[in-house]
Amino acid sequence: MTGAKSHTRFELHGGHPALDFVNSLDNRFLKDGAVELLADYSDLLGFMQQTHLLGRQHVRLLTKAASQGAGAGPLQSARELREAAASAFYGSLGGHGPSPADVRTLERHFIGASQHRELRWKRSPTASNEPSAAAWDWGRFRTEAELPVWILAQATSELMMSDKLHRVRECGVETCRWLFLDTSKNHTRRWCNMKVCGNRVKARRFQARMKE
């Protein structure tokens, strides 16, 4: 990996980083084969920055840390986490859960994330009326190449263990099926992106009516 490579620009329609993460394997269900958007560690860092899970300066630090090939392992771990998460989300939508193997994979990643956090006591600013409080921080692990995987594991676990899990949907366009969080008032959203998939379906219906 080199610093000269430009990051992949991701289409973020999931409404949650964990869902956008699963969507980073595009065309997942097409016969022609899926398209891997996380081609290398640089793409993984680009995804982290674009979803605001990591800041630009932090990404630069991790880019330097992985300049000697240290990003290959974390990239593989990220893809493993992603596919186990995909199994869980799509399985839940299909009325069944992930396989036992995928559950163990998720468990391993979730535990790994929790084991690399440090408890810090954050003091409130002098001029603030807010009380100081405890908070989790990545501390001495902030420059580890595996950090993006731990952050994504934490984000995924938080979604899976929240009430929001019941609002996860998949795009109604068969050639898409990207995951998204349905935040519509009546929870009836059908497409990951109205301007793309929604308009595409409407155009097809209009053409069908014109042929009748």
Structural commentary:
The protein is mostly helical and 212 residues long. 45% of the residues lie in helices and 9% in strands. It contains seven helices and six strands; from the N terminus they run αββααααββαββα. The chain is globular. The protein starts with 16 loop residues before the first helix and ends with a helix. The relative contact order is 0.14. The C terminus is likely disordered.
How many DSSP-defined strands?
Answer: 6
Straight-line distance between termini: 55 Å
Low-confidence spans: pLDDT under 50, at least 5 residues?
201-212
Q: What is the typical, i.e. mean, pLDDT?
A: 87
Q: Which structural category do the helix and sheet elements fall into?
A: mainly alpha
> Beta-strand level of the residues, as a percent range?
5-15%
Largest sheet composition:
2 strands, antiparallel
Radius of gyration: 19 Å
Q: What would the CATH topology be?
A: Jann2411-like fold
Number of domains: 1
CATH superfamily: Jann2411-like domain
Quick gist of this model?
The protein has 212 residues and is mainly alpha-helical.
Helix-strand layout with pairing:
Elements (H helix, E strand, L loop, with lengths): L16 H6 L2 E2 L8 E2 L4 H10 L5 H10 L6 H22 L6 H15 L3 E5 L10 E5 L9 H14 L7 E3 L8 E3 L12 H18 L1
Antiparallel strand pairs: 1-2, 3-4, 5-6
Helix pairs in contact: 2-3, 4-5, 4-6, 5-6
Looking at this protein, list some descriptive labels.
212 residues, mainly alpha, Jann2411-like fold, two-stranded antiparallel sheet, 7 helices, 6 strands, globular
